[in-house]
Amino acid sequence: MSSLLTDRSLLWIGALLYLAGFLTGLVALTWRQPRPGLRTILNTLLVGGWGFQMAGLYVRGLAVGGCPLGNTFEIVQFVAWSAMVVYFFVGATLHVTLLGLFTAGYAATLALVSLLVPHWDLTRGLKIFGNNPWIELHAALAVFSYGVFGLLAITSLMHVLQSWNLKHKRLNGLFWFLPSVVQLDQINFRALTLGVLLLTVSLGVGASWWVRDTASVDVPKLTVTISVWAAYLAIGLLRWRARLVAVRFAWVCLVMFLIALLSLGPVNSSRHHQVPLTPHR
Amino acid sequence: MAATPVLFLLGATHRTASLAVREKLSLDDTRAAALSAKLRAMPDVREFTLLNTCNRVELYGVALTPGTIDALHAALCETTGCTPAELNGAGFTRHNHEAIAHLFAVASGLDSQIVGETEILGQVKQAYDAALAQKSTGPVLNRVFQKTFQAAKHIRTTTGIGAGQISIATVAVDLAGRIFGELTTTKVLVVGAGDIGLKTAQAFQSRGAASITVASRTLSNAEAAAAQTGGWAASLADLPELLAAADIVASSTSAPGFVLTRDLVAAAMKRRAARPLFLIDLALPRDVDPAAAELANVFVYNLDDLAKIAETNLAQREAEVARCRAILAERTAALWPQVAQSLNRPAGS
What we know:
The complex is a heterodimer.
Chain A: H1 7-29, H2 38-64, H3 72-94, H4 99-116, E1 123-125, H5 133-168, H6 181-210, H7 219-240, H8 246-269, E2 274-276
Antiparallel strand pairs in A: 1-2
Helix pairs in contact in A: 1-2, 1-4, 2-3, 3-4, 3-5, 4-5, 5-6, 5-8, 6-7, 6-8, 7-8
Chain B: E1 6-13, H1 19-25, H2 29-40, E2 45-53, E3 56-63, H3 68-80, H4 84-90, E4 92-95, H5 96-107, H6 119-133, H7 139-158, H8 168-180, E5 187-191, H9 195-206, E6 211-216, H10 219-229, E7 232-235, H11 239-245, E8 248-251, H12 262-270, E9 277-281, E10 298-302, H13 303-344
């Protein structure tokens, strides 16, 4: 493959297209009237970004011989890609204005930060899935659930902003474009349910293999993973029982996602033997 | 040498005439028919259309000679009882491309009392339809009016002239949309049977609110008000239960103190914590304790808040006027040569 089309260069193009989509959307917000073709341009940028990112992850997957989830760089890229998948296949049915813009900003941030932190991609786990497709599925589902929780964080942020605007009577700018607080609250609950379900299935698959070889996962990873799952489950139950509602629910989802993202580091570094990646991929 | 026919506009509007003069000039069906008959009898008037609304009387037409305008003045005075001095003081005339520019502005809502309102376009269409029905239009006015409708549509879709609500009731409805999204599942409670509360309830009703309940100290007042909104009547004594069930509360009582206290709202929220509560305080002195706004999921807006939003929206519309006028000037300049050609064409050709 040409050196111009390495996995990282494809991922760079993807990240820059997300950024272009986000910036185009921001500029469009300042227009008094929507211009024809704007939606097509935005969707083209986002689909293009997603396509390049997928191609980059595919090339990386071929190079490492499996799902590219072997280091923080790959995981963060996969989380950004998952958020876009959720946006395209779930978000589009929700008809939530500005969700594409916020998702583009979120995916661009994750993808660019992961590309700009070189040491996240210096080493990666060796044979982390042990050629076991079930473990690979477990990892992919877990990271995909982070994509859903990422989308939940985005809609939670939108909820916090819209509630703040309404409470403080700041009815300019984003206010008229953001969805209603009730709509955002419903979306948050659905996204949380979906994320918890995915993570539950992922942990179920992982647990069924872990009981056969309890030494395969170390205690820090086990503790952090189960804590994140239990925390999201508890948030979901509290929301279901109407004990945690409205803007407080949104804030908790937002903070919880930041904690979950930060937990990726310890989870990743606590496992497996790390090997340096060869240059010039 | 024969004089060139002119496209004319003779009119008086809220911008030029006092209410007293507009009252005199207003044309009911009988007077409008009488004026039409007079115009039809004038050999120098080739085409005409009469736009008659509460804020304006405007006569558009094609006259074979500029001197015809004087005869039209006289006909208008004779029909309405307005003196020539009153009409001269309050009326105005426009010719050719200036008449087109004025009609464009009127149909686009730029000349309306509430800038950007849409009702005027319907009224212009009605006036044109009426003129078509009585066959008082011809090639010139047909072209001008068709182009007017296109220009007005363009202005509506490409500028912010109609953006944002500008009445208290519709601003409240818009805000409710930002909280609840679709209003078809929302329950509206009107506290007090005052006029402004009922107008707000009607605005919610027109947006498809699921139910409207009117609560008043006197049940008979509540029943009378509920009948106007197609809602239910209730006694103010049931306020704690009503508040727990409602999504939107519009309060406009004449009570001297707070009707909706923080404690009352807090108690209601305990029974419906997951759903927001939108409190619209339309009363002076206020009905809703401002401290209720501190409660989670409770949004409180009073008259001042709503008026401020309406004023901002209106200011934004007015800021768009110059841009709209520039667009309409281009369209007028493009249309005028075609109209001038039609004017110079002999009648019947």
